[in-house]
Specification:
mainly alpha; 0% strand
């Protein structure tokens, strides 16, 4: 039988996928992006965030979770929108100016 700790990565991956997908849907207002590109972006951030959480657990959760969340927020603020803009299908890549 799998322990609770063994289930943690599965739970984190599932929850983060749902939450990230919701962020992507909100950011897509007025932007056309193919669904497989949206999923690619979601998967990228999902694995980054799950990896950070697993590393935090591996290090015995010594870093303050509020501080870690603030640092992650600083790191990825605006990135979802930029990623969606880079994959949008209603403009050519040369028109992007980020």
């Amino acid at each position: 039988m799998m322990s609770v700790y063994g289930l943690a990565p599965i739970i984190w991956a599932t929850l983060s996928c749902v939450v990230l997908r919701e962020f992507m849907e909100r950011g897509m207002q007025g932007i056309t992006v193919q669904d497989d590109d949206v999923q690619f972006i979601v998967d990228f951030y999902k694995y980054a965030l799950v990896g950070m959480a697993l590393e935090w657990i591996r290090k015995d959760m010594k870093e303050d979770p509020v501080r870690m969340t603030e640092r992650l927020n600083t790191l990825i603020r605006g990135d979802f929108q930029r990623a969606l803009n880079r994959f949008r299908t209603d403009r050519s890549p040369s028109e992007l100016d980020d």
